[in-house]
Amino acid sequence: MSGPAGERPAHALVADLERTLGDPAAESGPFSFAEIVAHEENDSLPPGAVELLRSWGFSGYLVPEDFGGRLRNLEDLFLLTRTLARRNLTLAVMFGSALLGVNSVWLWGNDEQRARVAGALLDGELACFAVSEPDHGSDLGTNETMAESDGDDFLLTGEKWPVGNATRGRFVTVYAAIDGSRSSLLLLDKEQMEKGSWTNHPFVRTVGLRGHDLSGITFDRTRVPAGALLGRAGAGLVGILQVLQITRTAIGALSIGTMDSVLRIALRHARERVLYGQEIYQLPVIRRHLVHAHVDLLIAECTALPVARSLSIVPSRLSLWSSVVKYLVPTLGEEVVQEAARVLGARSYLREGVASGAFQKLQRDHAIASIFEGTTHVNLHSIAAQLPAVARVADRPAVGGEGVLRQLFDWSEDAPQWHPSGRALRLTNASEDEITRGWGPAADEARRIAERELAGPEGAALVKVLSELSRRRTDFYTRIAAEAPDAASTHGQDQATEHSVHHAAASCLYTWLYSFERERAEPGGSGWLVLALQRLLRRLDHTTELEESCLPWLEELMLSSLEGPRHFSLQTVRSAAGPAPA
């Protein structure tokens, strides 16, 4: 199904939100950098910003279609969040925290719970996920919040902090131990809780995301009906780990939106700033920073979007794939921010001037992406723990893997509808990882295409980088299968880091194979892949250089995308590389 001019429905939806929010470089408006930065100085949100999002219908994308909302799949929400995050991460995090707060309801709630929460969210209410405790942080095995049985009710006692939307949110999904042992998830509705039996904490003062409700909540024998239980008593820890798989994936949208904005700010500055008698864009080192940032953004997109689609296609793979996205995409985002800062020089440090001082806000806000929903170390541990099982079958493509890969990486159609089910999510992938296991046949096919369709240095460079990545990949998984490294060791974390590189390289390759079939022989249609694979190889071998012949086309595209609503994205690359009309 396509929209006007062959546009996918998801992209048409994003375009409509872009038009509604307007140009962030405008002088005024609730989504202009000028107003965002001015109000952030007072720890507040721009007046009218939340109202504009709600009137557009953004809240509807927190509620699945099955329950009366507009959320068809995670891909749609990912793309919309990217659009919002490239303007204001604070608001994107506010809605993301609400999604985290209600996903347990969609997965395990009963009909009454789902209907009540869906109706309230569609009316503009928010929710929160009250899991962390002051003394325990991400140690989910230690939970001091207790729900004591009292007739047909529970009496809830404990403190949760810090919690996004704890004060503004009407609904609270709380992690509590029932009768001292069975850690469970309970759905609380503040409108039904006895006044005086619970209190909210003041907002925490933070480095970034100023104006966001990061606060806490304390319960003092708060009476909660037994019907507040979400799913099975005692399944709370498993439920948290499964819910986080969804939001860890969605966090990639925050990073990619940030990358788009900081690259745009730095590129515009490089075209406008004149030093030594020329615009600084003409300096080779400046162009290198910008091109590296652009290619890294494309890698992030290739890595994250298929995992967002997987929620509707193969949700059982999210335990591993979501951790790869949560580690790698924010890491790439941090590096893109650093590249942009080098272009801006001293102006990256100012709270005024270039882009109304938005860069320093974006830089501070994005720092949260590597912290919440499990820190970088937590996600690397999750990857490392699953590597031995994956490594043992790394050279055996999964049965039916090609069909799965085409569904994930052929972006000519939107992802299928998501029908929420807690039973569909798993705590581990076991050995199921079509993305890394399918590399061998895909690389062979890519070499044949390069030799048959791609002339000159581009084809030769593609064959070379594929061969080097294949060699390193074989050595890597052979070592893992033999060693089975300790996931908690620094060596295990390093192995998880390298696995993420191989996952991303495979994702770039499949995107090219399945979504660039018509464009790959056209100018730029394969050059971006060469550059992406070389950037990834450079993470394993710092002597790797980018293929010079592929750079001019990508630079020209980057410059042409600077003005207007087009994102720096593979969709833009694909449109520009498309074959000329007959």
Structure, explained:
The strands form two sheets. Strands 1, 2, 3, 4, 5, 6, 7 and 8 form an eight-stranded mixed β-sheet that branches. A two-stranded antiparallel sheet has the order 9-10. The chain is built from 19 helices and ten strands. Helix content is 52%, strand content 10%. It starts with 8 loop residues before the first helix and ends in a 5-residue tail after the last helix. Helix 7 packs antiparallel against helix 10 (358-366). It is of the alpha+beta class. It has helices spanning 9-21, 33-40, 49-56, 74-85, 89-108, 111-122, 236-272, 284-313, 318-344, 358-366, 376-392, 401-409, 434-437, 439-453, 456-483, 490-515, 527-538, 551-560, 570-577; strands at 127-130, 146-150, 153-164, 171-178, 182-189, 198-200, 214-225, 229-230, 274-275, 278-279. Strand 9 and strand 10 (278-279) form a beta hairpin. Among the domains are: 4-122, Butyryl-Coa Dehydrogenase, subunit A, domain 1, CATH 1.10.540; 127-234, Butyryl-CoA Dehydrogenase, subunit A, domain 2, CATH 2.40.110; 432-582, no CATH class. The radius of gyration is 24 Å and the shape is globular.
